[in-house]
Amino acid sequence: MSILRRGQQWSTFSTIWHIYDAKWQDPYKSAEKIKHYLMGLYKPIYHPMNYCGDHVIVINSKEIALRGDEWRKRVYFHHTTYIGGASWTLAWELHKKNPTLIISKAVYRAMKGNLQRRHTMQRLHIFPDENIPEEMLQNVSHQIKQLRPVPTRLDHIAPEEMKQFPKLISYPEDYVLK
């Protein structure tokens, strides 16, 4: 077997560490993408009962973006298994308590039908900011591309760049805003 073929075989059977930046990303669309790496769906040796998934590190989970007014309308259900232990929590309240829970619940839901999903979720590491332990960061060898680009805030644009931007309307010098 050639060295190239042997390298391909090793990478197929090895466990890879991926990193995903969740800043300004929809957690439910991101969960579908993260699921492919956690379960190993992109590998040619994939089987539902086979351990072939990878580790995924999700950073900036504190800065996720939900569509429309889902922060106020999306509700998460929890039951303590005691009588009267049912509770419903709004998305913004849950995110305020624990900024990693929404992404965790989205990925868990995306793996519906997977008999191994509780074990697969152990390979998902979520951090609310960019502070990752050094021993985990040393293992990372691949970055998962974001679904949409993060827009630049207006207060982060340099004044020189703003002056060079083409104007749509030129107001007269004596124009007064009311």
Automatic annotation (TrEMBL):
A single GO cellular-component term on record: mitochondrial large ribosomal subunit
Stretches that traverse the bilayer: none
Gene3D superfamilies named among the record's database cross-references: Ribosomal protein L13
GO aspect biological process, one term: translation
GO molecular function terms noted in the UniProt entry: mRNA binding; structural constituent of ribosome
Keywords, sorted A to Z: Ribonucleoprotein, Ribosomal protein
Database matches in CDD domains: Ribosomal_L13 (cd00392)
Record has Ribosomal protein as a keyword: yes
Family membership noted in the UniProt record: Belongs to the universal ribosomal protein uL13 family.
PANTHER family found in the cross-reference section: LARGE RIBOSOMAL SUBUNIT PROTEIN UL13M, RIBOSOMAL PROTEIN L13
Protein name: 39S ribosomal protein L13, mitochondrial
